[in-house]
């Protein structure tokens, strides 16, 4: 497809499309939060809201096509989405042996819904890449801004209504940002994703000082969550980008900044000032004994196919003699092992291998972005819900990056597509 010299300005359409994409992503991520203690309101937001956003992504996709694009996208890196579909298929089949089919079905359908949203959302960006090559929409900018505005709500809320936006832990000794609205560790992971994405806006000098302000606000919120795993994730992201940069002066400044901030952050977040919780850190807040009990006592009961999608025992909670009762494993790979057995775990391991392989085949900026997003959600996956756990926005982010490596332009157009493009886009030569 060659460009002719007929000057047609698509700026207004592209700005509106970028704005709609941001609104859809912001609403989708927002629907994972518990904005009210009223169960009916929360369910309404999570079910009706998310289905509405899914419908919005579908409508926006076909709005782009009607304006001047062809529905001519084909698959690439097919094993990554195919194996993810296999994981969901096994989860669906597991309803037959699930120890709570209703709960398994609810979790499965929420995961499938976010996958469908991710597919249409990334297809919208792919159409822009193909038919509007000069567009300025970037996935990392949309994600970074979404995280910033959500985090800003929490930063303002911690001063306006601390009882709602803080969660007291350790017998009320420690207040962590998140409240009942969001688990502090999950909120910390969200902050990590935001920082990973906004770094690319700094690279391209996109509203540079405004972007730096966004990063500082998000980092402050991360500090207030007290999330150890998220702090580790952000440090890894920073050093990952330092390693990629060729600017020695920038590298030196960042390294000095990290070395100055890191001791304070480690003392405040990991050791909790006096180092009294070092034993807690070494046991990963009781997770290691819990995982040991799961492997020794729970896994032998259903080793091959598990207890059913998002189920870890015959009862609602798994509890060993020497561990706390748990409804989920606090480790996404352990979660898969318990709910879909060794067969499910093998499937998701190969799925991740082919996903990362797909990252490495992309051009540099996109490859770095996808790896940057993967780092915080993968680290979170070792201590919380994770990318294969109960429904959360970590799953959404993982699905978005899977879809980001799964679509490309089809080399063929149907006669109908050609007629459509000749009518809508006379500046294009087919």
From TrEMBL:
Residues 215-348 form the O-antigen ligase-related domain. It is found in: Membrane. One of its GO terms (cellular component) is membrane. Keywords: Ligase, Membrane, Transmembrane, Transmembrane helix. Its main location: membrane. PANTHER family: LIPOPOLYSACCHARIDE BIOSYNTHESIS PROTEIN PA4999-RELATED (PTHR37422:SF13), TEICHURONIC ACID BIOSYNTHESIS PROTEIN TUAE (PTHR37422). This is O-antigen ligase family protein. It comes from Rapidithrix thailandica.
């Amino acid at each position: 497809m060659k460009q002719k010299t007929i000057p047609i300005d698509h700026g207004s359409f592209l700005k509106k499309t970028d704005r709609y994409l941001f609104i859809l992503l912001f609403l989708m991520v927002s629907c994972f939060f518990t904005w009210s203690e009223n169960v009916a309101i929360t369910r309404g937001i999570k079910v009706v809201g998310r289905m509405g956003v899914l419908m919005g992504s579908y409508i926006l996709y076909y709005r782009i096509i009607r304006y001047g694009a062809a529905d001519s996208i084909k698959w690439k890196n097919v094993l990554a989405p195919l194996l993810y579909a296999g994981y969901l298929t096994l989860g669906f089949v597991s309803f037959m042996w699930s120890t709570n089919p209703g709960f398994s079905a609810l979790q499965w359908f929420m995961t499938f819904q976010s996958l469908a949203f991710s597919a249409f959302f990334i297809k919208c960006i792919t159409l822009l890449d193909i038919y509007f090559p000069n567009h300025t929409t970037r996935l990392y900018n949309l994600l970074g801004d979404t995280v910033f505005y959500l985090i800003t709500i929490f930063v303002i809320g911690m001063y306006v209504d601390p009882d709602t936006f803080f969660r007291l832990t350790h017998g009320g000794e420690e207040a962590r940002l998140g409240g009942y609205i969001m688990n502090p560790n999950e909120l910390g992971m969200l902050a990590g994703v935001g920082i990973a994405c906004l770094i690319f806006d700094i690279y391209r000098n996109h509203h540079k000082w405004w972007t730096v302000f966004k990063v500082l606000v998000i980092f402050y919120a991360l500090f207030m969550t007290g999330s150890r795993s998220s702090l580790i994730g952000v440090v890894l992201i920073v050093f990952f980008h330092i390693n990629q940069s060729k600017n020695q002066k920038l590298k030196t400044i960042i390294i000095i900044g990290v070395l100055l901030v890191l001791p304070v952050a480690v003392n405040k977040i990991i050791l909790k000032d006096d180092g009294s919780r070092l034993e807690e850190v070494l046991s990963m807040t009781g997770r290691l004994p819990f995982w040991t009990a799961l492997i020794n006592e729970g896994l032998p009961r259903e080793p091959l196919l598990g207890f059913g999608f998002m189920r870890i025992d015959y009862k609602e909670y798994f509890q060993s003699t020497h561990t706390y009762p748990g409804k989920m494993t606090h480790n996404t790979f352990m979660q898969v092992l318990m709910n879909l057995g060794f067969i499910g775990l093998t499937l998701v391991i190969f799925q991740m291998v082919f996903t990362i392989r797909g990252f490495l085949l992309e051009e540099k900026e996109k490859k770095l972005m996808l790896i940057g997003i993967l780092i915080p959600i993968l680290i979170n996956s070792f201590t919380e819900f994770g990318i294969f756990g109960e429904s959360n926005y970590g799953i959404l982010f993982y699905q978005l990056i899977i879809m980001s490596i799964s679509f490309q332009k089809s080399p063929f157009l149907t006669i109908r597509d050609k007629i459509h493009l000749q009518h809508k886009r006379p500046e294009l030569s087919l």
